[in-house]
Amino acid sequence: MWVKSKLLVVLVEALLLQLIYGQGFDYNVSYDSRSIIINGERKLIISGSIHYPRSVPAMWPGLVQLAKEGGVNAIESYVFWNGHELSPDNFYFEGRFDLVNFVKIVHQAGMYMILRIGPFVAAEWNYGGVPVWLHYVPGTVFRTDNEPWKYYMEKFTTYIVNLLKEEKLFASQGGPIILAQIENEYGNYEKAYGDGGKRYAQWCAKMALSKNIGVPWIMCQQWDTPDPVINTCNAFYCHDFTPVSAKSPKIWTENWPGWFKSFGSPTPHRPAEDIAYAVARFFQKGGSVHNYYVYHGGTNFGRTAGDYVTTSYDYDAPIDEYGLARFPKWGHLKELHGAIKLCEKALLNGERTSLSLGPLLEADVYTETSGSCAAFLSNSDNKTDRIVQFRNMTYNLPAWSVSILPDCKNVEFNSAKVGSQSSVIDMVSEELQQSASSDNRDLKNLQWEVFVEKPGIWGEPDFNITGFVDHINTTKDTTDYLWVTTSLYLDSNEILENNSSQVLSVKSKGHALHVFVNQELQGSPSGTDFTAEIPISLKAGINEITLLSMTVGLTSAGTLYEWVGAGLTSVELKGLKNGTLDLANFTWFYKIGLQGEHLNLYKGDGLKSSNWISTMEPPKQQPLTWYKVLVDAPSNNEPIGLDMIHMWKGLAWLNGEQIGRYWPINSSKYDSCVDHCDYRGEFSQKKCSTGCGEPTQRWYHIPRSWFKPSGNVLVIFEERGGDPTQIRFSKRKVSSICSFVSEDHPSLSALSWTSPVNEPNDVSLTARLSCPGSTLISSIKFASFGDPSGACGSYTRGDCHDPNSVSVVEKICLNKSECDIKLTNDNFNQAFCPNTVRRLAVEAVCG
Ligand code: GAL
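Above: the input entities. Below: the structure tokens describing the complete assembly.
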């Protein structure tokens, strides 16, 4: 009896799983010129990239869920070869690299997956994702027609395909993967590789097809893709893209909703209005598969970042680095996705008619035989708002916007009208704390342990040579650090009276350098390729010149990028009595890595090394210092950033996990930044940057799942000198959520325009608030119905204000996770300011 009912439960569960996730059902995935076809039905795909190793497994379900709530129905990720094949045939799929687990989480969320296997990926990922060891396999040239490259690339691709097949993760087996990509943007470089490039591209397609995965293969930015492989578009706008084969659907694999950041550069932003415009234009012009690169950017933990790329890979994406929805971007795109979904049937099965409504004004109308109709009206003028007539109705089209009419009549969405809530996010600082013992929460002063390295060769040198070697060929990227030292004897009469005239002139292919003379730090130049003149002080007798050369991530893309070198190419001593001394003729001693790295000071037994010295007063501004401290987890459960603003540059770990490189280096105040971003007109990476002259990256994400309640080991290696007592944990907190609606349109966006006509379907008259996670609205900080102005966090009342505003909003919203406040007569006194366009601004606190 028990067995029978148990069996029944199992059967029902299996059936439910099949119904919910399609698990066990084999999908037939094919395509035609219009779209991807799944089990005979055309599908619209709105996908978002979440790179699994750029977050941690504990975050994956939440990120995928937040993407789903944002109206995304597929997740895209690259596969990161050098994170998986650590040395030939030595594979790793644990923790952040548990690809199978990630794909299963996507499946369980009932979403599709697009897997870009590459295995060259670019992605601002160290060495473009290719293992460094492959560069040293004789005869290998990356990404062109040669045996070792093709052998290892095919071997890894096959390994991944087989792994996923074994787990039945391709749609053809009932799994979520509906598309797979081979190579990445090879078409942009193919010509530079000559005939070998052409042969290689064709080989890639053939090799991929031979893996029989049962779902279509794609190649992005590839202009000679052979059928049935589909070529796809990557750009800020792809509405004008046409695939090479008339049989292929129009697919956009990379729509960049922001951009990545480099050390020493300001922070890029892309306005939500422009992203929505680009996406709407794509679907307007016949696109059917679209992917945000990236929907969640995440973190380049450890040493996974590409050359000079910051540890943060936030990307200004709809979900921020820490896993929180970015408002209003996330919300605006969610509304866009909802509107596009309403058009799905007509879009995919209807006939398209395009008509001009005037200069730069277009209507694209999709009509289906059954009568369903969807229309997109666009104004591509980057300055002028327009009023257009369409099917005997009048529509207001703001400059650089698209209106979506899922029934060819009512406007469901306009890309320039942001109705979504906004938010204020703070990094709330908390001092490092240490409880006396794990079960006794009495706090005690921080007990530090410290190890100071001596500049220069520790132990025996690895080798010596006259002159300089390439940094990467020497370290093989096992570490950022390479010690390079020499010594020279100077007679007292060789040094000029004025000691300040001596300069060390160094040239380096990159990326950073600390210069020590006689154990004293003299300067720290940096750049991807630089020349520096560093004033130094010498003494009569033997002088030790000690250089710590560093890489900050390896190049991740470009023709023959794997040959881009790093490190010193010339060192000269200028200002001696006899002129300049070329130190290239000297014998230089080399040592790979720091002593602390060799001692494994950041993990395992190294944490107990006898080199650590206890102190209550850790040294400040001390170069080459390792710090260790036991700390409690910050209170509550907000995401955590490690505040390193008082440190210079180095590496950080928590409980042996690699947080990554830190380097708050300021960007130049002369870079181009804006106070206010005009979303109208073509976007480019640098159009809307902020933070010129400010630290590139102050906070470094430490996933909550790396913490235990107390006794967490924080290890910092500081290269040049900082104040470790100023290191803080900062909690990323949504301090307020806001809504600003107006009688004339959903929001007075940064640019205001007057709307002389009423939209047929005005969705504007509701202010909607929704708290993150499981929090509830605990107070109303500001509410004004009248003519308030300002931005979330700094609203101010205008001349007219309904005195009941706060109590009305409190009544509707307090203690709710979300609420809708309608601008109706019942709620607000319409007698106020009869001759103005009235607005409601609300700022609420969630707790
Ligand atoms: C693309 C590339 C991506 C990424 C992106 C910029 O060209 O395919 O991997 O590098 O640029 O973030």
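Note for the figure: Residues 19-23, 746-764 have pLDDT under 50 and may be disordered.
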